[in-house]
Amino acid sequence: MGLLSVPAMAYNRPMNIESPIRNRSVGHTACPHDCPSTCALDVELTDDGRIGRMRGATENSYTAGVICAKVARYTERLYHPDRLMKPVRRAGAKGAGQWQDVTWEAALDEIADAFVKAEQHHGSEAVWPYFYAGTMGLVQRDSIERLRHAKKYSGFFGTICTNMAWTGYVMGTGTLRGPDPREMAVSDCVVIWGTNAVATQVNVMTHAIKARKDRGAKLVVIDIYDNPTMKQADMALILKPGTDAALACAAMHVAFRDGYADREYMAKFADDPAGLEAHLKDKTPEWASAITGLSVEEIEAFARHVGQTKKSYFRLGYGFTRSRNGAVSMHAALSLATVLGSWQYEGGGAFHSNSDIFQLNKAQLMGTAMVAPDIRMLDQSQIGRVLTGDGEALRHRGPVTAMLIQNTNPVNVAPEQRLVKQGFLRDDLFVAVHEQFMTETAELADIVLPATMFVEHDDIYRGGGQSHILLGAKLVDAPPLVRTNLFVIEELAKRLGVADRPGFGKTERQHIEHMLYISGKPDFDTLIEDKWLDCQPAFDDAHYLNGFGHPDGKFRFKPDWENTPAPNKPPAKLGSLGPVKSLPVYPDQVDLIETADAEHPFRLATSPARNFLNSTFAETKTSRDKEGRPEVMVNPADAAALGFVNGDVVCLGNVRGELRIHAKITEAVKSGVLVAEGLWPNKSHLDGEGINVLTGADPAAPHGGAAFHDNKVWLRKAET
Q: Per the confidence metrics, is the pTM higher than 0.90?
């Protein structure tokens, strides 16, 4: 039988609440979706046991009462009529949409049996637990790793999000922390580089706009198209995709040339300023103009402004690193702050993530004591290659024949989408998906299990783009047949014979208590009372005035790309990934990107939409209505040359595939650049294939990563 739509109903019971306000109570939690912001939330709980409106917590100094519109209307998602409410088993061909009801007991028995059979036929590595960031809660996200280690299943090397950004930053600083992001509010210049913060990190704008209002600070925005953040800028720099390092190098050239470089600071805190200055001699604004598409005057004006403004805060995002030279671009932008000595000042320096400051010990949660070093690691981004039998992707070992998927939707979000779908359609592949909606990955599964949402379970969060550990205590009960991620892991552990191993048999609260205790943090009850814990380091540590994180305390203009410790460094058995030998000695533009050519004259970026968060919220009507339909932005001159007008259907393609999509003719993109904001479900596209048909899974140097914004394509009007 097919899945039945279940109407919204009052199945919830409030917990963890404050005193009633107008017949309502207020609960406290954290947004589970966006790791940079991790907004602290105040949640209305109605007398009939339902969630009401969500608001940013005014008492949290980073969230400061502001959240994005899509989370503010979370009730639309929580009470969506298409939410999964019961376990189901596939009853027809894969993808045919035929399902039959199954009990939880039977579903879990079937999953465990499939895993045992896979192990018997091909060894334990035939099972691949696959997960990611659908929730950023540590317990619900990371418990799957404990099962993986206990059973010696294939390892998961996460590469879709942070690899290039974190690697580039740590190559310079030696650790992943920076100036308090709340210092943007006391800066004299905030440079938002490579992130559409209005759409993806609204709290960045809260503090940047405060600096403008209170201090007259200038807002500089650097990106590849005229997006909503760009429209807020006092200085807007729209450059060609993948050319950010050239801009940074030219700005450093000007700093040395015109006396803005802080030589005294660099002599104390940097490894080789003389070598860098010599290297930059020919990295002139004219040189950078030819690469970036910016005018010489724009580059000079930017370099002069940040050079003359000591309190310049460089807020470095993820977007500009999602190219094959992304780690180099991050390191180059970061180096500019060091040349200028911006780190010395409150409201100055360069910030990307505070992920190293929290020091939460997850060893028991993840079962790291059970790690077997000889078990292979498989690249998250190369799931299509893994499932279609690519020998290199499989590390020249056996096939993957069984999977458990939590917190991610690879059929929609992973690169090389045609390979991904081809792999999931294999008859010999068993897939169990634990989800909140019937995603396009769930549609290709054998068993689909209904998952809780963040207000329905306990968890703990940390905000990489800020400084807080936040408790997300359960606020309401889940629907009767909906279960947590932890429940699924615990029940499978019992059936697979590893429930007696360390870390199993604990509740969410017990896991949180253990993490807090062993990490020297306040206990669960204290966090219930305080709501969050501010872990921001002291000023001198955050600004590296006691030295950078490398052994000699020096910032690295001249990084060791292969040997420097980094958060996303692959295990030794994988070695370095991508064309490492092509990485530059000093900051430089390096053309590892897919440069346009005669056959593929356009560069395509798949930037995030304001009303979606990856594939999350693409199921809610309001978000879909606000986004309209899948479109590709095309410059008017390019459209005229190719003979199509606004709203026409066009074809995009490259060696990976092709798709049809409606054209949006706009001056927001420069000639030769295409932007498709998303992520729309595949089925929302004209031919049922999404934009990731065009994105590649080849690893970016030096530590892997998917270059979603780095695609060369051809473009033409579609045939009628």
A: yes
